[in-house]
Design goal:
The chain is mainly beta. The protein has one domain. Helices cover 9% and strands 62% of the residues. It has an eight-stranded antiparallel barrel with strand order 1-2-3-4-5-6-7-9. A hairpin with a 4-residue loop joins strand 6 and strand 7. The longest helix is centred in the N-terminal third of the chain and has 15 residues. It is elongated, with a radius of gyration of 23 Å. The N terminus is likely disordered.
């Protein structure tokens, strides 16, 4: 798989992450590694000019892996004074809620998918690959208070949190289509977005394990279909998406200096 031309985008996304976290107190830098499984595919539409158009949806499971660099900081340090809670001391307002902003690179998606056609000789067999560079934001909400309210103190559950968030960036995708009679291929670089949710668990003060699901919209490659003589015979497009279950291990390694972190 060729390398994605994402260096400029990564710098821009990293600058956005730093700008977001800049006003926060007690902000830490962290690195994270991701590993999971991706159900990658989508709905394809194939048209053979002399036959007609057909649609079908299919996906394939493949590994997904990558890494992220980000910042984590308390939510209450990001709220403007007018939005803080009246009658509650600043240090007691949402003390354990955390915001994470990061730049993430994920790769490994490689699907063999098929869109049925009018007969088995003309099934659209698609080899699709995709990798992404995205800026993400996520909110972690600890479960300590509801766990204590429901069960009393359960030490093993107190480090647990739930999270949700989203992100946007670029998806670099390529597809190769082959029916046995006609072929086509396309490479695209498109805006992509994701939504995510899951559970976090603080293994230590600096190490956090996250298990969660994400949905990604990866764009719509399209290609002309030609026969063995190079004659144009039709076209094919597919709306690529992925449902992924991933595990991530994040390690805080540096607390920002007073200019950006604690006073």
């Amino acid at each position: 798989m060729r390398n994605a031309p994402f260096s400029k985008l990564a710098w821009i996304a990293a600058a956005a992450v730093c700008w977001t976290a800049g006003p926060a107190r007690a902000a830490d830098l962290y690195v994270a590694g991701d590993l999971g499984i991706s159900w990658f595919g989508g709905e394809g539409t194939g048209t053979i000019d002399v036959v007609g158009t057909n649609k079908g949806s299919n996906d394939d499971a493949s590994p997904v892996y990558g890494a992220a660099l980000g910042m984590v900081f308390p939510l209450n340090s990001m709220l403007p004074a007018r939005m803080r809670f009246p009658g509650i001391a600043e240090e007691k307002a949402l003390p354990d809620w955390e915001v994470r902003t990061e730049v993430e690179y994920l790769t490994g998606r490689d699907a063999e998918i098929a869109t049925p056609s009018f007969n088995t000789l003309e099934t659209y067999r698609v080899d699709a690959q995709s990798w992404t560079v995205m800026a993400k934001a996520r909110l972690d909400v600890p479960l300590r208070t509801p766990v204590r309210a429901a069960f009393g103190r359960v030490p093993v559950l107190e480090p647990m949190s739930i999270y949700f968030g989203g992100g946007g960036g670029m998806a670099f995708s390529k597809v190769n289509v082959n029916t046995g009679v006609v072929t086509g291929k396309d490479d695209i670089n498109r805006f992509a977005w994701q939504a995510l949710a899951g559970f976090g668990y603080d293994l230590t003060d600096r190490v956090k394990l996250s298990l969660g699901w994400r949905y990604l919209d990866l764009g719509s490659p399209h290609t002309r279909l030609v026969d063995s003589t190079g004659t144009d015979q039709g076209r094919y497009s597919i709306d690529l998406e992925a449902h992924e279950f991933t595990a991530s291990l994040g390690v805080r390694f540096y607390q920002l200096p007073p200019l950006l972190g604690d006073d």
